[in-house]
Amino acid sequence: MSINDTSAVIYPDVDLPEFNAIDKKSKDNGDILYILVPKDRPEVCPECGSVSVHVHKKQNRSVQDLYNFGHRVGLLIEGRTYRCRDCGNLIRVNYPSLHGRMTKRLVEAIQRDSLNETFAAVADRYHTSITTVATIFNDYTDVLMAEHRFVAPTVLGIDEVHLEDDYRGVFVKVDRTEGRVLEFTKKRTKQSVIGTLRRMEEPQNLQLVTMDMWKPYRDAVNEVFPNVPVVIDHFHVIKNLVKAMDSVRASICRRIKTSDRKALKHNRFLMLRNHEDLTIQQGRDLNTLLDEYPELRNIYLLKETFRDIYSDAGSSAEARDMFTEWKQACVEADVRAYDDFIRTVESWSSEIFAYFDYPDMDRTNAQTESLNRRIRTIARDGRGYSFEVLRKKVILNTYRLDSRGRFSFKDFLDE
Hints:
The chain is α/β, with parallel strands linked by helices. It folds into 3 domains: 1-100, no CATH class; 155-229 and 364-384, Nucleotidyltransferase, domain 5; 234-357. The protein contains 16 helices and 12 strands. The strands form 3 sheets. Strands 1, 2, 3, 4 and 5 form a 5-stranded mixed β-sheet that branches. Strands 10-9-8-11-12 form a 5-stranded mixed β-sheet, sandwiched between helices. A hairpin with a 5-residue loop joins strand 4 and strand 5. Residues 156-393 form the Transposase IS204/IS1001/IS1096/IS1165 DDE domain. It comes from Bifidobacterium canis. This is Transposase. It holds the Pfam family Zn_ribbon_ISL3.
């Protein structure tokens, strides 16, 4: 059949603008092969402008395509190379819908999926090699990362995630609607953090930095942005408080008989959970537990009283006064379990109580903790990724998710 034969059968499900489908073959396993021919041929030599162009030789090309209704699809393109009779130039035709031995739409699907899934899962889905997926991912993400700008947000969250026996630095745009990872670093040392902060564009945007109680973070921010306030998120403060309380429960567990130990261990969550989050029955169970172990009652009540600072204080000054009263209550109750916690709060008092001075800003690291969980999942599922691959996945995965949303029949019917 002639290359320009208009009688060629057109299969609309192929949907490649440069080609006509002239045949379709199927196998018992559901695989489909389309035979395609180009719709057009070059009429003018791009080298000399001559119109004396002839077919040099046939050149078939095997191309893998996206699945079609669950069936694997291959394309056999009956291509040609051409030669100019006047200057001898060999002309190879470039087809925009093809990319090597794949269609462009298949490559784009691999690009999209490889951001959010493991290379192995994507390779299995599209019946290609992990190496091919990794190559497509790296080529694609190199372009995206070249476009990526590390612009200072209004609120910057600094945290870390523990991977492969080391801590990685995580720099987050803290925002309830657009929170994402801005940068992911190999180290979390003071010098590493300083270098990262100095690379931020538009630093004048920065109004607040939230972090946990890791001194190199504070020192780095104070050196690079001495006028930007640092806030310790209440999540980290309460975490230290609860840890101190639970150490008392654990010490009791170690000195009582096994049968009682199991009950105390099993009901641990009653003491750890916020009092207002307990059901009526859980509240009764907690009172029974505290009646049985009186030394835990004051420890628990003091934990809840400290939490009241975050719910009731309207300013840093008021929070400081409430903390002073709480410390006195510890003394009067002869509770020493919180001594280390008190020293921690006092050594970080400026940053901890600054939390109360910015009630209208996103000053919680809860979003950062959520992103850290995603990072750990990416690292776990893709065990063996190089740091650079992991960095690109972390930064791009947290904001370049598939934005198409759910399939909408309504969008079609309303047209």
